[in-house]
Amino acid sequence: MVSKFQLHAVGEMCPGYVNNSNASGINSSITEEKMVSCETCIHWERGRCNINLFDKVLTDLDQT
To answer: What is the CA 21 to chain-centroid distance, rounded?
Structure first.
């Protein structure tokens, strides 16, 4: 199971991360903008990355 820490760390480093509230054109609060996580990305659907970057980014984080 993926932890909240991993979701946040991967979201911070992911080249494909796009905040789901920014993509729709809705202005988000400062708090929401700082909440970078896979769970707040437009590519996160049903608990998975739909562009298959999660595992690669997580592995790259483990290498550093």
So the answer is: 12
Residue with tokens 């979201």: 11
Helix intervals (H) in the chain: 4-13, 20-23, 30-34, 54-63
Sign of torsion, CA 51 58 7 37?
negative
Which residues are 44's β-sheet partners?
Answer: 49
pLDDT (tens digit per residue) in 41-57 = 999 999 999 999 999 99
**For the chain, give me the number of helices (H) and strands (E)?**
4, 2
What is the model's pTM? 0.79
pLDDT higher for 1 or 12? 12
The residues facing 19 across adjacent strands are: 41
